[in-house]
Specification:
By secondary structure, this protein is an alpha+beta fold. Helices cover 41% and strands 24% of the residues. It has two helices and three strands. It has helices at 2-13, 52-67; strands spanning 17-23, 32-38, 45-46. The protein is globular. The chain starts with a helix and ends with a helix. The mean pLDDT is 90.
């Protein structure tokens, strides 16, 4: 999923980078997922710090990555 997410994010934004990172937990099934994204011209940050439109495109990239 992470590889497809990176590719789709770059395509949707016309550049930039993004990746997924598991938040540590004792139980792998209880681990969280952190989304880091860097649209073109911005710094690498958590998805919660992006604008609404950037969050929407990032979420779309993640959903399509899951289907792939």
């Amino acid at each position: 999923i992470n590889a497809h997410f990176k590719d789709l994010f770059t395509r949707l934004f016309g550049g930039g980078q993004a990746y997924l990172q598991l938040v540590s937990a004792e139980d792998p099934l209880g681990a969280g997922l952190e989304i880091f994204a860097q649209p073109p011209g911005k710094t690498l940050q958590s998805i919660s710090l992006l604008s609404g439109g950037e969050q929407s495109l990032t979420a779309a990239a993640l959903i399509f990555a899951m289907f792939l």
